[in-house]
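User: Hi! I have a protein structure encoded as tokens and I'd like to know what sequence might fold into it. I'm fairly new to this, so please keep things simple.
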């Protein structure tokens, strides 16, 4: 990997792990019932979102960049209404993220600019990685919002960091 690719790869890996940590904080607050509760008929539960994130990361990184067979059943991610507890959902997501990180970390530089098919699209490796990081961040925000809504609680996701401090 070239020295110019390293900051992008490092930042991507950072945000993949960062979002998974925030999801863990939410799951620690939510009950099993709340994980599978849908706010309305047109919304997904946290459980659906975790299945969806796992499927998306597998399809885009493991298949798109890593060459693993695409066995995704996207509709099942949204139709599920339980049957997997939050510990197992989190385990599956973290295992998938860790597999994706291994692929990203070891990706040859030329794969960042090579176009390849993924889902119904054709994109280069940089786009694929950026899509996955952005997609995970988007749904992590939804999970955080849902947790705060249900629990009416500050999740202290930044710990004791003074976010009003300027450098």
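Assistant: Happy to help. Inverse folding works backwards from shape to sequence: for each of the 167 positions I chose a residue that suits the local structure. Here it is:
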């Amino acid at each position: 990997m070239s020295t110019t690719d390293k900051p992008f790869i490092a930042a991507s890996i950072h945000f993949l792990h960062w979002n998974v940590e925030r999801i863990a904080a939410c799951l620690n607050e939510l009950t099993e019932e709340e994980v599978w509760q849908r706010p309305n008929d047109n919304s997904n539960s946290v459980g659906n979102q975790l299945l969806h994130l796992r499927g998306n990361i597998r399809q885009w990184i493991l298949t798109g960049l890593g060459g693993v067979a695409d066995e995704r059943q996207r509709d099942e991610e949204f139709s599920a209404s339980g049957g997997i507890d939050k510990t197992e959902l989190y385990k599956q997501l973290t295992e998938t993220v860790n597999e994706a990180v291994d692929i990203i970390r070891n990706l040859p530089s030329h794969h960042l600019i090579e176009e390849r098919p993924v889902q119904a699209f054709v994109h280069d490796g940089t786009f694929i990685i950026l899509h996955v990081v952005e997609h995970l961040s988007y749904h992590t925000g939804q999970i955080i919002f849902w947790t705060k809504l249900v629990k009416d609680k500050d999740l202290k996701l930044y710990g004791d960091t003074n976010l009003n401090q300027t450098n």
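A useful reference point when you look it over: The chain has one domain: 6-28+50-151. Feel free to ask if any position seems puzzling.
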